[in-house]
Specification:
InterPro entries: CDK (IPR050108), Kinase-like_dom_sf (IPR011009), Prot_kinase_dom (IPR000719), Ser/Thr_kinase_AS (IPR008271). Belongs to the protein kinase superfamily. CMGC Ser/Thr protein kinase family. CDC2/CDKX subfamily. Its main location: nucleus. The chain folds into two domains: about 280 residues, Transferase(Phosphotransferase), domain 1 (Orthogonal Bundle); about 130 residues, no CATH class. A hairpin with a 5-residue loop joins β6 and β7. About 25% of the residues have low confidence. It contains 14 helices and 14 strands. By secondary structure, it is an alpha+beta fold.
Length: about 575
């Protein structure tokens, strides 16, 4: 027969057998239910020990073997639960919890890693190390509120309540119901007040209007919510089936007195007709046992491989990246722009007071839940494929992707030195991008100034010296009338001395060529005569004049040899 051993170590115990182990053994001996794990016997590895104070060994609790737990299955990515599977799981879980409450026992540590499952789809509630007997009549007796893993802890315990009852276990079951549908913890934080804030964002901020006794709780005076939130649980879980959403709404009620009981939850429309024994089990991985410790080993191995890959990789490239990398702190971290419930590793849970009955960290989970682990999405193939698709889409769209987002996609932990190196790399890339952008602007400006040949004006005379000049293309203007000859034919040249002063070129007789009307264009370099024959005149007359030199008309007195006109600055 295959069994499971739970080790109770005594090396570090100063007061003999741990009280938590005694409590678990005592309670499990009194419970007998198909949905509660069966304790077969207790054994020790030193059968001949006479004095355990001097010859300390280890005790083992022998349980029936269960192939998986819910945490390992959710993290593995190897299973896909549908609505009928979730209903079967919740029916079995609430059936076992209702049995415990009828026997006046509180579990006080319900979470996914404490819910076991075999390959036939049977659910069993385990780990009664924090369980205790309670009296419904003796409501004045206080209990410790440092129980239940933080993510599954109800608001009354977060506010310091010490006189509680079965409602605390129902809240934990409600968190598991939401987690089975979303595949991630519903409320995630690493401190008690932050956990209460995460609950408030979904279930509403606790107040006397919805919870009359909340003002009597010890921590109510110190509870200072950042914002008053309204209850929006139905909006957050609108994708759930209607009956399942109704049950979730009742199980996650802020006021414990209004919270549904386990017995009433079994009578809800969603679970009343569910018969797990008649349902086919989910397609579970028979070749692999999915437990919490197996998930931890996978994460440790993944981190080790990532560290080895990072240490063996060469220097990061400083250019040639297909996307822009911005600084670690720049931009919004959207990849996740983190949702209302921020992803926090299950290993980051807060301690509640040490390990139960001497279990070491390598071989057991702690009662505080600090070793409970969130779904390691980067490990399973589905999440890895999603990450690769996201990175590929960013490559194709040329989107800006920060290193923090890229590291988050690939589940890479960046230490301080690597972070500084990446920030320096980002600065170099940003400077290179700025220089490249400036170069593009300069090239565009240079191209806009490229000179273009100006079509010649109609010939005024048969013999004319043509000059081709290249100058910037002016802005489009209205069509100008056909140009007229600068020097009317058949009329003497009549130019005043003031008009001729400083313009043109003087000949041997001291005369100067007349200057045509100024053009509105910037100064240009002196044009060079073209040796090629002039191109044919355009079909339509040009809209601007062209500098040229010409022989004087026959009727005008000879002005000397033809000269080239210098460009004249625009008239003021």
């Amino acid at each position: 027969e295959l069994v499971a051993l739970k080790k109770v170590r005594l090396e570090n115990e100063k007061e003999g057998f741990p009280i938590t182990a005694v409590r678990e053994i005592k309670i499990l001996r009194q419970l007998n239910h198909p949905s509660i794990v069966n304790l077969k016997e207790i054994v020790t590895d030193k059968q001949d020990a006479l004095d355990f104070k001097k010859d300390k060994g280890a005790f083992y609790l022998v349980f029936e073997y269960m192939d998986h737990d819910l945490m390992g299955l959710l993290e593995s990515g190897l299973v896909d639960f549908n609505e009928h599977h979730v209903a079967s799981f919740m029916r079995q879980l609430l059936d076992g919890l209702s049995y415990c409450h009828r026997r006046n026992f509180l579990h006080r540590d319900i979470k996914c890693s404490n819910i076991l499952m075999n390959n036939r789809g049977q659910i069993k509630l385990a780990d009664f190390g924090l369980a205790r007997l309670y009296s419904a009549e003796d409501k004045a007796r206080p209990y410790t509120n440092k129980v239940i893993t933080l993510w599954y802890r109800p608001p009354e315990l977060l506010l310091g309540e010490e006189r509680y009852g079965p409602a605390i276990d129902v809240w934990s079951c409600g968190c598991i119901l939401g987690e089975l549908f979303t595949r991630k913890p519903v409320f995630q934080a690493n401190q008690e007040m932050a956990q209460l804030e995460a609950i408030s964002r979904v279930c509403g901020t606790p107040c006397p209007a919805v919870w009359p006794r909340v003002i009597q709780l010890p921590h109510w005076a110190t509870f200072r919510p950042k914002k008053q939130h309204r209850r929006r649980l139905r909006e957050e879980f609108a994708f759930l089936p209607g009956p399942a959403l109704d049950l979730l709404d009742q199980m996650l009620e802020l006021d414990p007195e209004r919270r549904v009981t386990a017995e009433a939850a079994l009578r809800s429309p969603w679970l009343a007709q569910v018969r797990p024994e008649r349902m086919s089990p989910p397609d579970l991985p028979h070749w692999q046992d999915c437990h919490e410790m197996w998930s931890k080993r996978r994460r440790r191995q993944l981190r080790l491989e990532q560290d080895m890959a990072a240490s063996s990789s060469g220097p990061l490239p400083s250019s040639g990246l297909p996307m822009n990398l911005v600084g670690m702190g720049g931009g919004s971290n959207s990849v996740h722009s983190a949702p209302a419930s921020q992803d926090i590793s299950r290993d980051d849970g807060p301690p509640l007071g040490g390990r139960p009955y001497g279990l070491d960290e390598a071989d057991s989970k702690s009662a505080d839940g600090s070793d409970s682990n969130q779904a390691a999405s980067s490990v399973n193939s589905q999440q890895l494929q999603t990450n690769l698709n996201t990175i590929t889409a960013a490559f194709q769209k040329h989107e800006t992707l920060s290193i923090a987002q890229l590291a988050n996609l690939l589940n890479i932990k960046v230490d301080a030195s690597t972070r500084q190196l990446l920030e320096n790399l980002n600065m170099q890339l940003l400077l290179a991008a700025a220089a490249k952008q400036a170069q593009k602007v300069q090239m565009a400006s240079h191209q806009s100034r490229q000179v273009h040949p100006v079509p010649p004006l109609p010939q005024l005379h048969q013999q004319q010296h043509h000059v081709t000049a290249q100058h910037p293309q002016p802005a489009p203007q209205q069509q100008a009338p056909s140009p007229q000859p600068l020097i009317p034919s058949g009329k003497p040249l009549d130019v005043s001395r003031d008009q001729m002063s400083g313009l043109g070129h003087a000949d041997d007789g001291g005369r100067r060529l007349a200057r045509p009307p100024p053009l509105s264009q910037p100064p240009m370099s002196p044009p060079q005569p073209s040796r090629r024959p002039p191109p044919p005149p355009p079909e339509s007359p040009p809209t601007r004049s062209k500098w040229r030199s010409s022989e004087p008309p026959p009727s005008a007195p000879p002005l000397g040899p033809p000269m080239l006109q210098h460009p004249v600055p625009p008239a003021s």
